[in-house]
Amino acid sequence: MHGHHSVSSQSDIQALKSVLHKYPNFPVKGVLFEDFLPIFRDPSLFRKLINAFKTHLEAVYQAQKIDYIVGLEARGFLIGPSLALAMGVGFVPIRKAGKLPGECVRTVYEKEYGKDTFELQVSAMPPGSNVVVIDDIIASGGTAIAAQDLLNQISVNILEYDFVLELDFLNGKKNLGCPVFTLLSEQEFALH
Ligand SMILES: O=P(O)(O)OC[C@H]1O[C@H](OP(=O)(O)OP(=O)(O)O)[C@H](O)[C@@H]1O
Ligand SMILES: Nc1ncnc2[nH]cnc12
């Protein structure tokens, strides 16, 4: 990558956007499902995705240390570990209920198309850790708020949320008390 560029090149962003796919009425009627999986089928796009998040985070957090990348099951697991490894920081998963051993904190939440339960291992991170939460998309924001709830319960500080996509019309960001970065925003996507 080019050392002094603080944002990803517009051609990388366009290349990533060009493979996104929309599926009307999936998984339920009335939902327009945004599929980002084609990015992972092409290693050069996968690399562009990871580099774009890394470049963004390194530009924003020069003075402050990121302790962990926290990924949300399941699609946050496709990005989080690769990003954490590239940045040389730890990775911690937040999982759907019943998957994690040991003492866990738990929360029930509503998302755009249903209800779910999230858990986080209490021993995963020391209190006061600074984390970035990553997922593929923010829709209603229910999932992101559930992650905030769990991280608050173990006294971990969220520096920001990073998403690949957002559904603007659902305004999911409104109840989040920290910055949100969206790599391929739906607005720009629509212009393309
Ligand atoms: O902003 P919200 O309305 O809460 O929706 C966003 C969440 O919904 C999807 O996860 P889903 O629970 O469908 O994940 P899965 O791929 O693990 O089934 C998506 O990957 C986000 O995590
Ligand atoms: N419209 C959507 N597309 C993909 N993932 C989602 N998760 C919640 N809403 C979604």
Share of helical residues: 25-40%
Strand order of the largest sheet: 5-6-4-3-7-8-9
Enumerate the distinct ligands: 1-O-pyrophosphono-5-O-phosphono-alpha-D-ribofuranose, adenine
Number of helices: 5
Strand content: 25-35%
Q: Which CATH architecture would you pick?
A: 3-Layer(aba) Sandwich
| CATH fold descriptor | Rossmann fold
What top-tier CATH class fits best? Alpha Beta
Q: Give the overall shape, derived from the CA principal axes.
A: globular
CA radius of gyration: 16 Å
Task: Output mean pLDDT.
Answer: 93
Protein name: adenine phosphoribosyltransferase
GO biological process, one term: adenine salvage
Family: Belongs to the purine/pyrimidine phosphoribosyltransferase family.
GO molecular function, one term: adenine binding
Structure summary:
Helices cover 30% and strands 30% of the residues.
Keywords for this entry:
9 strands, alpha/beta, 7-stranded mixed sheet, Ade_phspho_trans, binds adenine, disordered C terminus, two-stranded antiparallel sheet, Rossmann fold
What report would you give on this structure?
By secondary structure, the chain is of the alpha/beta class. It has one domain (10-191): Rossmann fold (3-Layer(aba) Sandwich), CATH 3.40.50. The chain is built from 5 helices and 9 strands; from the N terminus they run H-E-E-H-E-H-E-E-E-E-H-E-E-H. A 7-stranded mixed beta sheet has the order 5-6-4-3-7-8-9, sandwiched between helices. The chain has a two-stranded antiparallel ribbon with strand order 1-2. Helix 1 packs across helix 2 (43-60) and helix 2 (43-60) packs across helix 3 (76-87). 30% of the residues are buried. Bound molecules: 1-O-pyrophosphono-5-O-phosphono-alpha-D-ribofuranose and adenine. Its EC number is 2.4.2.7. InterPro entries: Ade_phspho_trans, PRTase-like, PRTase_dom, UPRTase/APRTase. Keywords: Cytoplasm, Glycosyltransferase, Purine salvage, Transferase. GO terms for molecular function: adenine binding; adenine phosphoribosyltransferase activity; AMP binding.
